[in-house]
Structures are given as structure tokens and as C-alpha cells.
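Thread: "does anyone have the structure for this chain?"

Original post by V.I.:
We have the sequence but no experimental structure in hand. Need at least a predicted one for the grant figures.
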Amino acid sequence: MITHVFVTKLKNRNEETINNVKNKLLGMKGKIEHLKDLSVGVDFTHAQISYDIAMVAQFNSKEDFNAYLAHPAHLEVAKYIFGVQEKVVTVNYEI
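Reply from O.Q.:
Generated one for you, C-alpha cells below.
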């Protein structure tokens, strides 16, 4: 199984932007057949070192993960997030 962890810090940390990013990420559920599981969380500490949103997605294989990366629904979400993010960190690992 492949796990993809995505964490982002937003340029504008207002409630509207945070909710838009969260909803766009969650909106990929059911649209991308290769996506086995997806969870999204919003940071509640608002510390200076905190990032704002984390997503954890799971896939059955590296091939499914690569198909997800190229999927139009993912590309649409990534394009939006690229425009509102300040920083991003990802970790991808195999269990």
C-alpha cells in the first residue's frame, strides 16, 4: 500500500480559503477511482510553525498513485492549491 501525505501552509489563512482547500481536497473522493482512502484535517493550534491543512491519501500500488497524480480531478485541485499556498510538504511511502 502507498501512503501520500500532503501538508500545506496557505498565503491567506482566513476561514474561507481554508474551507475551500479542505472541500476541494475532500471533493476528490469518488472522482478518482485509484484513490483507496482520503482524509483531510485542519490545524487547530495556529502556531507559527504550524501548517494549515494536511491530507493523507492511500493507494493500492505505485501505479495507482501515479494515475492519481495525472488524473484531471487531481490536476484541477492542485492548480487551485498552487495559487493559494505559501509552502507545501509531501511524503510518499510504501507499507
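V.I.: this helps a lot. The mean pLDDT is 97.
O.Q.: and The helical segments are 15-26, 62-70, 72-84.
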